[in-house]
Amino acid sequence: MDERQTQIREGAGLEESKLNVEFIDWLRRWSTPLLLVAAVAALGWVLWQKYEKAQLETVDRAFKELDTALMTGSPETLRAVADTYPRIRAVPILARMGAADAYLGSARAGVRPGTSLKPDGSIEPADILSEADRESMLTQAAELYQRTLSETETDRDKAVHAIGAAFGLAAVAEMRGQTDAAKQHYERVVALAEKTGYPVQAVIAKQRITDLPGRATPPMLYAKAEIPTPPQPPEPPAPTGATGAPGATGAPVPTGVFAPPEAPAATGPTGEPPAPAATGAPAPTAPTGEPAPTGEPAPTGAPAPTGEPAPTGGTPPAPPPQP
Fold it and tell me: Which of 67, 217, 222, 292 could potentially form a cystine with 226 if both were Cys, beta carbons 3.0 to 4.6 Å apart?
């Protein structure tokens, strides 16, 4: 009790009430701005979530359109995808590289992109590229490869695209017969691959530099009309009969049909032909010992079933006694 009394101080209650009044005044002054700031922050967070969702949907749509364009193989469609989504991750780079590859493949095959063969393997004359069209395809491919290389050469994370573009430029140079330019592009590939950690691509580029003299002259593609007609195979010999001799009438025996051999004549138990049944023999007697009716000869000419002679007229043995 004494300690409590010593702790009592004059005017302590007035100070506490003063603090409460100041806190209430502070709330009255700053509560509205604080509520506005909280509301703005909550609204911003909601809008940011909607923006992120819209971005993800755009990314999904861009990659779906890219996959569809790559399956069709149309370079115009691929370029349109690259122009529609210029900042969606790697979509524009992949679309331009796909379009460049389509142009290069078309120039190699000598037909327009997306050309389909007829059932007999021929191509419509309108789909065959002229020399000017072929050069135009190579030019467009080189432009797309060069643009991709310029955009990705300095970015280490996109080095694989830069290496692919340099390979494409080297292939275009080889198609045009520019061996020196192709060598320079391959050397650029080696430098990029060794700098960014792609040793396999560097080895491939070095091997292509070594093989360049042998690929200076591209292989010739021949049209179907320029291919000589192969000789006709000789006619197969006529098939023979079962014994090796031709058929009885001289006509060839149909192939694929098996003629079974003639069945041999039935033989007896000893392997000899069955003996003819005996004729004129007396008929067998009845069980009581009386002679059977006579007057008709036994049937002749029919072989016995077992090859044994027909039974004679002897008396059959008596039956055993019944128990």
Answer: 222
One-character DSSP codes across 21-81: HHHHHHHHHHHHHHHHHHHHHHHHHHHHHHHHHHHHHHHHHHHHHHHHHHHHT-HHHHHHH
> What CA–CA distance (Å, rounded) separates 91 from 76?
15
Among candidates 8, 26, 175, which has minimal Cα distance to 108? 175
Rounded Cα distance between 84 and 95, Å, is 11
Cα 186 to Cα 150, 190, 216, distances in angstroms:
16, 6, 15
Q: Which two tokens stand for residue 49?
A: 């979530």
Residue type, 34: L
Q: Which residues are registered as beta bridge partners of 128?
A: 111
**Dihedral of alpha carbons 88, 89, 92, 98, sign:** negative
Q: How far is CA 43 from CA 35, 37, 53, 319, in A?
A: 12, 10, 16, 123
Cα–Cα nearest to 280, from 317, 314, 310, 315: 310
Closest by CA to 106, choosing from 81, 140, 80, 83, is: 140
pLDDT tens column, 250-305: 455 455 544 555 555 555 555 555 555 444 444 444 444 444 444 444 444 444 44
φ, ψ at 111 (rounded to 5°): -130, 165
- Give me the mean pLDDT over the 67-78 stretch: 94
Name the burial class of residue 170, with classes exposed (0-12), middle (13-18) and buried (19+) by CB atoms within 10 angstroms of its CB.
Answer: buried
Helix pair angle (12-72, 91-109), 10° resolution = 10
d(CA 292, CA 284): 6
Q: Which residues pair with 111 in a beta bridge?
A: 128
Tens of pLDDT, residue by residue over 132-190, are 999 999 999 999 999 999 999 999 999 999 999 999 999 999 999 999 999 999 999 99
